[in-house]
Amino acid sequence: MRVFKFGGASVKSAEAVKNMGSIIQAHDNGPLIIVVSAMGKTTNALERVLELREAGKDYQREWQAVKDYHGNIIQDLFSSDENETFLAIESLFGHAELILRQTFAEQGKAYDQFVPYGELISTTIIAGYLRQLQLKAEWIDARRYIKTDSVFKDAKVRWEVTEELLKLNLPTILKENIVVTQGFVASDLSDNTTTLAREGSDFSAAIFAHCLNADSVTIWKDVPGILNADPKRISDTAKFEAISYREAAEMTFYGASVIHPKTIKPLANKNIPLKVRSFERPGEKGTVIHLKGSEQPIPCFMFKDKQALMVIRVKDLSFVQEESLRKIFHILAEHRIRINLTQNTAVSVSVCADWDSVKFQKAKQDLEKDFEMETHTELSLVTVKNPTSNALKAALANKEAVLEQRTKSLCQFVVSES
Ligand SMILES: Nc1ncnc2c1ncn2[C@@H]1O[C@H](COP(=O)(O)OP(=O)(O)O)[C@@H](O)[C@H]1O
Ligand SMILES: N[C@@H](CC(=O)OP(=O)(O)O)C(=O)O
């Protein structure tokens, strides 16, 4: 059994969905699960609608734009006598509107009940379109199978129950059908919808693959494979034929946004190869992530934006030692702050982490009981693996680092965001 994952860019228009349809037709030879994200930038648009609603502002224009965008894609994809998909989409928009009118007490719950409509709608359109192509496509609701805790917007998978549910139900459906399902979306044990954090659809593909012991996962992207840098940031890039799980995990951790960082581990644990291929050039091989690493160490560039730097200082002249480090990291972990780099001196600890105003505010309150602290925002973390002096010049682009850390094989710089 194989798992294919199609992200927002690969289904952003009717043309793109048709291209995806031809990729599926070319691979219709054995059990297949297709995990799909919301179309184009729909998740951003839905977040905006919710923000406006939560601020008590008028959201109708933005909401109508989301409806029109999908409406135009449907018009383009389906012959006029096809109405099953039209009705299903209308009903999904109706449900989403009902959610917009409700209020939810828990932090993040409104988000998780509303934003997944991007995926519910995209998969309904795609399953309908594949059936129009005479493929046997069955839409399934990922929330029935992927079970998590109840931490909205960043839920943790409950692996045992998820595996049990998937193994019980999916093999029978897969015997006869191509399964089409949502990335990013899950539910807790009380059936409240949860999400696996932004860009979490790659991780969903890995969950299905891990639990069902897939032969491979293929993620179809707008790039030819894993490159040694994001082509949007560095002009001259090289593609890897193969990289190891460890190399891929490291690259994604430091910001190679081509794959979600959580995707690698569930696949590596079962030795399932992860392929990254181009949906624009589906005939090409792309990159395979498996046990064997890249042959030659070439410079590799990673960029992580939306970073903040916390400088935490001891209040008296006691030194930063085990006890203060324990206290600091305990507080940061409690507030689920994602740390990307740390550095300490005799009297201070600097932490570069993903910026989140709410989490940072709460952590600050706790830290200020024992420490003094400063926070700097609008920063990027630039990481260069296998550095050369030319590579460092290209990565920094004349920016001055506010913090840096160097080893022979890895250099990291915190710089202002471009
Ligand atoms: N090392 C890298 N190799 C290839 N692409 C990269 C790398 N780092 C970042 N990217 C970016 O990842 C993008 C693809 O990921 P993403 O846009 O999240 O896909 P999707 O949302 O369609 O799944 C590429 O367009 C590219 O700009
Ligand atoms: N739609 C979600 C989940 C996702 O993974 O999307 P994409 O595959 O387009 O990055 C998001 O934008 O966060």
UniProtKB/TrEMBL annotation:
<dbReference type="InterPro" id="IPR036393">
    <property type="entry name" value="AceGlu_kinase-like_sf"/>
</dbReference>
<comment type="pathway">
    <text>Amino-acid biosynthesis; L-threonine biosynthesis; L-threonine from L-aspartate: step 1/5.</text>
</comment>
<keyword id="KW-0418">Kinase</keyword>
<keyword id="KW-0028">Amino-acid biosynthesis</keyword>
<dbReference type="InterPro" id="IPR001341">
    <property type="entry name" value="Asp_kinase"/>
</dbReference>
<comment type="pathway">
    <text>Amino-acid biosynthesis; L-methionine biosynthesis via de novo pathway; L-homoserine from L-aspartate: step 1/3.</text>
</comment>
<dbReference type="GO" id="GO:0004072">
    <property type="term" value="F:aspartate kinase activity"/>
</dbReference>
<dbReference type="GO" id="GO:0005829">
    <property type="term" value="C:cytosol"/>
</dbReference>
<dbReference type="InterPro" id="IPR001048">
    <property type="entry name" value="Asp/Glu/Uridylate_kinase"/>
</dbReference>
<protein>
    <recommendedName>
        <fullName>Aspartokinase</fullName>
        <ecNumber>2.7.2.4</ecNumber>
    </recommendedName>
</protein>
<dbReference type="InterPro" id="IPR042199">
    <property type="entry name" value="AsparK_Bifunc_asparK/hSer_DH"/>
</dbReference>
<dbReference type="Pfam" id="PF00696">
    <property type="entry name" value="AA_kinase"/>
</dbReference>
<dbReference type="GO" id="GO:0009090">
    <property type="term" value="P:homoserine biosynthetic process"/>
</dbReference>
<keyword id="KW-0067">ATP-binding</keyword>
<feature type="domain" description="Aspartate/glutamate/uridylate kinase">
    <location>
        <begin position="2"/>
        <end position="277"/>
    </location>
</feature>
<dbReference type="GO" id="GO:0009089">
    <property type="term" value="P:lysine biosynthetic process via diaminopimelate"/>
</dbReference>
<dbReference type="GO" id="GO:0005524">
    <property type="term" value="F:ATP binding"/>
</dbReference>
<comment type="similarity">
    <text>Belongs to the aspartokinase family.</text>
</comment>
<keyword id="KW-0547">Nucleotide-binding</keyword>
<keyword id="KW-0808">Transferase</keyword>
<dbReference type="InterPro" id="IPR045865">
    <property type="entry name" value="ACT-like_dom_sf"/>
</dbReference>
